[in-house]
Structure to design on (250 residues):
């Protein structure tokens, strides 16, 4: 894995990819760094990021910080098998603490502000595909390589061996919510890094609709990536062994 992990959630550096993802260079030049999420110091800026009206619709099961508990109760009755939470600092901390199979990678700018994140979902027992989900990038930062950095680091974590501090899987999946403005842009970031074999599902999740002020049913796109395909695209990328070694700071 690229960079170094620390229990204190200190920033880790990432080296540019040689070919395949030129947009990453701009983010690196602007001082964007990735690190493991620290929910004591990151919960508040993450709440603001997730609650942005241009982001919230892309995040399955996440309500903005001004949503009511009544809306959460309503949607849970309709979708009893799905997870929902309000993106307050407390709600974010509680969600990740109750779901230890989820790891969060955050992107911060040179001033230390959180400008993006992605969640890595470790598969259940007997399953062999880890998932990248809830890719979120500050609208003012889009098109500058932040999403590329998050996707690449998430893939490296999934594919690196346990000895290297990773999960050791040979397949990754990405989930993108359909029917939300800009979802093609999010999907294109994954495709750029080798994801393919797109499958579309109708009414498979629910996400927040800012214009209606409630959750609505949406479709999703699943796309997959093999370790071999990722390594072919990113061959020559340097690696280290410490990014996700040990537990996250929660």
């Amino acid at each position: 894995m690229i960079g170094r992990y620390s229990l204190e959630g200190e920033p880790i550096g990432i080296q540019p990819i040689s070919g395949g993802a030129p947009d990453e260079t701009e983010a690196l030049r602007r001082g964007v760094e990735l690190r493991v999420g620290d929910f004591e110091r990151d919960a508040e800026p993450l709440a603001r990021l997730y609650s942005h009206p241009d982001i919230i619709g892309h995040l399955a099961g996440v309500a903005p910080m001004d949503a009511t508990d009544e809306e959460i109760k309503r949607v849970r009755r309709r979708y009893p098998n799905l997870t929902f939470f309000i993106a307050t600092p407390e709600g974010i901390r509680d969600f990740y603490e109750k779901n230890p199979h989820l790891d969060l990678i955050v992107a911060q700018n040179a001033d230390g502000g959180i400008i993006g994140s992605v969640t890595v979902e470790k598969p259940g027992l007997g399953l062999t595909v880890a998932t990248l989900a809830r890719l979120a990038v500050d609208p003012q930062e889009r098109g500058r390589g932040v999403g590329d950095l998050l996707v690449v680091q998430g893939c490296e974590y999934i594919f690196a061996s346990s000895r290297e501090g990773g999960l050791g899987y040979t397949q990754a999946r990405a989930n993108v919510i359909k029917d939300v403005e800009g979802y093609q842009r999010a999907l294109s970031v994954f495709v750029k890094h080798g994801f393919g074999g797109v499958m579309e599902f109708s009414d498979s999740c629910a996400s927040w609709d800012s214009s209606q002020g409630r959750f609505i049913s949406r479709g999703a796109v699943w796309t997959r990536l093999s370790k071999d395909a990722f390594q072919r695209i990113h061959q020559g990328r340097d690696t280290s062994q410490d990014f996700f070694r040990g537990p996250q700071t929660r």
Remarks:
- Strands lie at 33-36, 62-63, 85-86, 102-108, 114-121, 129-137, 171-177, 196-209, 214-226.
